[in-house]
């Protein structure tokens, strides 16, 4: 079982990128060039996601409105409330800058690819997962900046400007809509070259991590983040993830959802998106030490993948419906 908890290649690449930024941070003209390259890569990423996303697959699961509302409530209500309510308990574990990153983590949308993948492995409602995760990702473009503003005010860090919301829409939503418009011409090509989207996805994240950590290292990130603080951040992330998993699992059962829908709610409602979070942080926290803002989501990303991989396999081992000991997996409504 030990290999399940080993980091994947992308996580190793993230760690190497952080190490590179710590040893050879970019500065001056190189920092400007990397910043522009990062903006272009992010725009290309969301354009390709728009061209790849099947409207038919989304429409197939769109009618399951109770499930989607439950997922959105977990993502955009439960998580922010946990970040705010647990502040007296979790904030002493980390620095104020890192807890700002924890609050940002709580406001992020759900992941798309891994939510769908784990739902499929666990034999959940995949079509509903496609719709729920995609809706969360799109709504996050508007909802996350507003939630960040509310959480910052509660945290004593000031509000969020509408200019930042406009920047997010321009950088993320506009390329996505352009990709949807172009889907009729290039959608088939993008589906046949799915690894290309993965390369752009991971490449854009690595670029943002390198530029963000370079700037933060130059501002003294590691001098301000000793090992006990990193341990406290891991504990804070673990508490948030555990509470989210418990709330989504037992909340789905209390609301009368079947097993397949419960699986979808657990895997879509407990995750946070690294792919959306890092580009948003670049816009929303311009002028802040970005390394501290993105470090919580980077650690949470790996933690959620490892834990959900184990949960997905456990769900997958349940008996099929109709077999002795099997459960009824029909949707509740």
* Overall structural domain count: 1
Q: If you compute it from the alpha carbons, what radius of gyration comes out, rounded to the nearest whole angstrom? A: 20 Å
Low-pLDDT regions: 322-333
- The sequence of SSEs as H and E is HHHHHHHHHHHHHHH
What characteristic shape results from the CA principal axes? globular
Q: For the residues shown, what is the average pLDDT?
A: 80
Number of DSSP-assigned strands: 0
Helix content: over 70%
CATH class: Mainly Alpha
Instruction: Supply the helix-strand structural class.
Output: mainly alpha
Largest sheet: none
Through-space gap between termini = 37 Å
Number of helices: 15
Reported CATH architecture: Up-down Bundle
Query: Could you please say which CATH topology applies here?
Result: Na+/H+ antiporter like fold
Fraction of residues in β-strands: under 5%
Characterization of this structure:
The protein starts with 8 loop residues before the first helix and ends in a 17-residue tail after the last helix. It is an all-alpha fold. The chain has 15 helices and no strands. The chain has one domain (27-316): Na+/H+ antiporter like fold (Up-down Bundle).
């Amino acid at each position: 079982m030990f290999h399940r908890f080993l980091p994947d290649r992308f996580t190793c690449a993230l760690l190497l990128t952080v190490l590179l930024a710590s040893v050879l941070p970019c500065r001056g003209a190189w920092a400007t060039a990397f910043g522009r390259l990062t903006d272009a890569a992010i725009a290309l990423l969301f354009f390709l996601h728009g061209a790849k996303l099947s409207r038919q697959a989304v429409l197939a699961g769109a009618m399951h409105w109770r499930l989607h509302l439950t997922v959105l409530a977990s993502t955009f209500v439960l998580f922010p409330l946990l970040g705010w309510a647990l502040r007296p308990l979790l904030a002493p574990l980390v620095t104020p800058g890192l807890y700002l990153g924890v609050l940002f983590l709580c406001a992020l949308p759900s992941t798309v690819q891994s939510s769908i993948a784990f739902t499929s492995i666990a034999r959940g409602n995949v079509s509903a997962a496609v719709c729920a995760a995609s809706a969360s990702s799109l709504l996050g473009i508007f909802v996350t900046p507003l939630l960040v503003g509310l959480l910052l005010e509660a945290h004593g860090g000031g509000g969020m400007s509408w200019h930042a919301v406009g920047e997010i829409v321009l950088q993320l939503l506009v390329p996505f809509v352009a990709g949807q418009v172009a889907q009729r011409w290039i959608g088939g090509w993008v589906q046949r070259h799915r690894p290309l989207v993965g390369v752009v996805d991971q490449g854009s994240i690595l670029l943002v991590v390198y530029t963000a950590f370079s700037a933060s290292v130059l501002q003294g990130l590691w001098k301000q983040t000793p090992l006990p603080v990193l341990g406290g951040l891991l504990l804070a992330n673990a508490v948030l993830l555990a509470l989210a998993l418990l709330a989504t699992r037992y909340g789905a059962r209390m609301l009368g959802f079947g097993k397949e829908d419960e699986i979808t709610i657990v895997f879509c409602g407990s995750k946070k998106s690294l792919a959306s979070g890092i580009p948003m942080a670049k816009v929303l926290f311009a002028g802040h030490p970005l390394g501290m803002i993105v470090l919580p989501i980077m650690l949470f990303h790996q933690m959620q993948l490892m834990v959900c991989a184990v949960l997905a396999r456990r769900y997958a081992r349940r008996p099929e419906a109709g077999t002795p000991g099997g459960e009824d997996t029909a949707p509740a409504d």
